[in-house]
Amino acid sequence: MDKQKANKQLIEMKKLYPNPHHYIDFSNTFELAISTILSAQCLDTVVNKVSKELFKKYPDVEKLANADVNDLEKIISPITFYKNKAKMIKNAALTIVEKFHGKVPNNIEELTQLSGIGRKSANVILAHGFDKVEGIVVDTHVIQVANRLGWSKNKDPEKIEQDLMLLFDKKEWKWLQFYLKSYNRDYKKGIVKVTGDK
Predict the structure, then answer these.
(1) Within a domain: residue 38?
(2) Residue 48, domain extent
């Protein structure tokens, strides 16, 4: 892929969406980690509504670690795969308490030891919870845009991440997912189209 062309396309997207922000509401790394687990294959609006109720009842990691799974299921029932995710968030909270002294870890190796956290989620938590950018968050929107614009020919998220890391300076990595997600949503509605898109 032409690095110069890719960066020009990114500049166009940045002009379309001048105020980058994280789609999930959170006030600390604990809330971000739990909300990130809940967000898999679920609308951000649903996650934000449910997490507000969840954190009202379970405001810290210790309380969540001691929560009854049935109660968690009731609270998060609007979320996709809520029964599995109820177990995941409880187990993640337990691991944080027992293994990491009640603090959300700040590196990929330890974050991915938490139930429901893979590389993509770990990158989200590091970038937005700790301001540590070690990679690029590759979700469905990022995959679709990267493939459509020819930024990557790969289908595997980790390989796409590597391709994007070669195309863009590290200063762009933190908000790249925001730009591509915002752009892809509007592209699908027929509202926007950057130069060179199909």
Answers:
(1) yes
(2) 29-129
Length of the chain: 198
Q: Determine, yes or no, domain membership for 194.
A: no
Residue 197 inside a domain? The answer is no
Question: Hunting for tokens 């002009």 — which residue is that?
Answer: 15
The pLDDT assigned to 198 comes to 84
Question: What CATH number has the domain bearing residue 7?
Answer: 1.10.1670.10
Q: What is the mean pLDDT of each run of 10 residues along the chain (198 residues)?
A: 93 96 94 96 94 97 98 98 98 98 97 96 95 94 96 96 97 96 95 91
> Same domain for 49 and 16?
no
Residue 195 forms part of a structural domain: no
pTM of the entire predicted model: 0.88
Which domain-ending residue is among 84, 111, 129?
129
Helix axes 170-188, 119-129, angle to 10 degrees: 110
Dihedrals φ, ψ of 188, to 5°?
A: -65, -25
b/e map of 86-113 (b: 16 or more CB within 10 Å)? bebbbbbbbbbbeebeeebbeebebbee
C-alpha dist (Å) from residue 47 to 16, 24, 164, 166: 25, 7, 28, 32
| Tokens read off for 79 | 């979320």
Q: Give residue 175's pLDDT.
A: 96
